[in-house]
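User: Here's a protein and a ligand (adenosine-5'-diphosphate). What would the complex look like?
Assistant: Let me lay out the input and then the predicted complex.
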Amino acid sequence: DERRILQYQITLYGDDERLVMARDITRLHRLEQMRRDFVANVSHELRTPLTVLAGYLETYLDLADHLPDRLARGLTRMQEQTLRMQNLVNDLLLLSRLEIDQGGNDHQPLDMPRLLEGVKRDALALSGDHHVIMVEVEEACSDRLVASEQEICSAVSNLAFNAVRYTAAGSHITLRWRRHPKGACLEVEDNGEGIDPVHIPRLTERFYRVDKGRSTATGGTGLGLAIVKHVLLRHDAQLEIESHPGRGALFRCVFPASRVSQ
Ligand code: ADP
């Protein structure tokens, strides 16, 4: 492929002088593409051995009653870590797919209250009996969002699961779909531990965590908000985060009017 990719920077000096600088970024672009393909291929290749490993561990743990305690405990730890690796590999694969292909083929008008009810059920299941959380779906508008159901589901699930993971037992989480001056917005609000505003600008970077130990202990991969950011980019939407330590967090996805249908 003979095409070159150039990046221009134009600086204006007064009314009639301008400095134009062109940089050939073809090589940089190719390297970036190679990095994405590599991550996608490695994640894909890791999936099969991990599935086999998880399968064997499950079979052995079915026999745990007949095994010495130490062995059963060891197998349980191995199962937890295998699940962690599976989550990580799945998130890496999803993220590189979001970066590689343009998307848009499966966009359709989505019934948002129905979609949010589904996410609510999954969030409640994740929170479990010992950590019951109130999840509420507020329907402030019946407009539909023209988007990929799979991608929006994965973005909202990441936000809702974070809300569960960073709140204490008995907390309150609200999933909201409402009109917005720019079009419509989807909000996930919790009254949990919140985030210091200094961290907010970096939260959507891959593997950026406020507290690495806490995130890992609650099953985080460090890629959730990076996935949310990429899904929103593909839908011309923006992510706004409002939070303060101890006062919960609000994640707002703002969609333009062109994405909203009656
Ligand atoms: P992780 O898997 O670590 O949760 P994410 O990309 O989903 O990765 O989130 C990045 C970081 O943002 C988290 O490690 C956590 O520190 C912070 N965070 C995300 N959501 C919330 C929330 N609802 N309340 C408090 N902190 C949050």
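Summary: Strands lie at 6-13, 17-24, 107-110, 134-139, 144-148, 172-180, 183-190, 238-243, 249-256, 260-261.
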